[in-house]
TrEMBL record:
Top EC category: transferase
UniProt EC number: 2.7.7.7
Record's keyword annotation contains rRNA-binding: no
Family recorded in the similarity comment: Belongs to the DNA polymerase HolA subunit family.
Superkingdom of the organism of origin: Bacteria
NCBIfam families the UniProt entry points to: holA (TIGR01128)
Protein name (record): DNA-directed DNA polymerase
PANTHER family referenced in this protein's UniProt entry, alphabetically: DNA POLYMERASE III SUBUNIT DELTA
Coiled coil region boundaries: none
Reactions this protein catalyses: DNA(n) + a 2'-deoxyribonucleoside 5'-triphosphate = DNA(n+1) + diphosphate
Keywords: DNA replication, DNA-directed DNA polymerase, Nucleotidyltransferase, Transferase
Length: 340
């Protein structure tokens, strides 16, 4: 049976006993691994691995010895309790090995958990689990976690009192960090708030958050919007050394100034406009961008957007002008605009 992304978190948190197996597949190995860890932990409990109720079978070993899975499914351990046979990094080539073992599954046998990378709808392994009456197939996609998933992660870490502004910041972090980094940040926040009964604040989140993965790009955009033309040369040189293309920088600058224009145009003020921006503005940049929107004003921001759109057209045209120089000139012109 297919398990939808909406129902999967509930199942992983409290898996139904007596299921034959679960296939977890997806392009992002980290996301798949985190879901698999959660599922297995909730199937066998905290002592399951120590009590040898979890059998790990790498795909490479199963190819060498196809009987490994059947043996693990039927084996009875010394300790009572649910058992799991985990096949790691399976591919479609193992479908003919895995499916007979699951066909022979009976009540009381170990639950089979299989992880895989990307599987197309034609995949034999995926088709088998999706058509099975007592097994699940779960696709793990690169979508950011839902509000329920974030709250569950916070509760698991013992963080139950979260100020609304801090929750907004945590949600923003979940959209810019990969799942592993986000979970580590939550764990770090939990340790940071250990024995502190006060609600988690934005300052607490800021103290535990990792540096932005796009810090160099952000530095260029902030220097431009804050009229620091003198800082642009070294910053742009670093970006160019990292391989950032002028078109990509232009797209990022346009997005930044559109957000500023949205904030400056908001009838409830720039702070409210920044809060409404989609995708959400990274919380570390929020206050700076509010000040930038106030300094620029709507008219100058519209002029800035016109300049960026013209620059984008030039960069994508057949002009022989050096693209890096075109982009640098545009940013310097922008940096001088607020002074005009």
């Amino acid at each position: 049976m297919k398990l939808t992304p909406r129902d999967a978190p509930r199942f992983f948190a409290k898996p139904e006993p007596g299921r034959t197996g679960v296939l977890i597949y997806g392009a992002d190995a980290m996301r798949v691994a985190l879901k698999r860890q959660e599922l297995i932990a909730n199937l066998v409990g905290p002592e399951g691995e120590e009590e040898m109720r979890l059998t790990r079978i790498p795909a490479s070993e199963l190819r060498k010895d196809p009987a490994l899975l059947s043996d693990a499914i039927k084996a009875q351990g010394f300790f009572p309790g649910p058992r799991v046979a985990f096949v790691e990094d399976a591919t479609d080539t193992l479908a003919k090995t895995i499916t007979p073992a699951l066909d022979d599954w009976q009540e009381g046998d170990a639950t089979v958990v299989v992880t895989a990378g990307t599987l197309t709808p034609r995949s034999a392994l995926r088709k088998y689990f999706e058509s099975h009456t007592n097994a699940y197939a779960v696709g793990v996609y690169d979508d950011p976690p839902t509000r329920d998933e974030i709250e569950a992660e916070l509760a698991k870490a013992g963080l139950r009192q979260i100020a609304p502004e801090a929750m907004t910041d945590i949600t923003g972090l979940s959209r810019v960090l990969d799942p592993g980094d986000f979970r580590q940040t939550i764990e770090k926040l939990s340790l940071y708030k250990l024995n502190d009964p006060t609600p988690t604040t934005p300052a607490d989140v800021l103290a535990c958050a990792p540096a932005s993965t796009e810090a160099e790009m952000d530095d260029v955009l902030h220097a431009t919007a804050e009229a620091r033309a003198g800082d642009l040369g070294p910053l742009l040189a670093r970006l160019e050394a990292q391989g950032v293309q002028p078109v990509g920088l232009c797209i990022a600058a346009t997005r930044h100034f559109r957000t500023l224009h949205l904030a400056a145009s908001d009838p409830e003020g720039p702070a409210r406009g920044i809060a409404r921006a989609r995708p959400p503005v990274h919380f570390k940049s929020r206050d700076r961008m509010v000040r930038q929107a106030q300094a620029w004003g709507v008219n100058r921001l519209e002029a800035a957007l016109e300049l960026l759109i013209d620059t984008d057209l030039q960069l994508r045209s057949s002009s022989r002008a050096p693209q890096a120089a075109l982009m640098e000139r545009a940013l310097i012109r922008l940096a001088y605009m607020p002074r005009g």
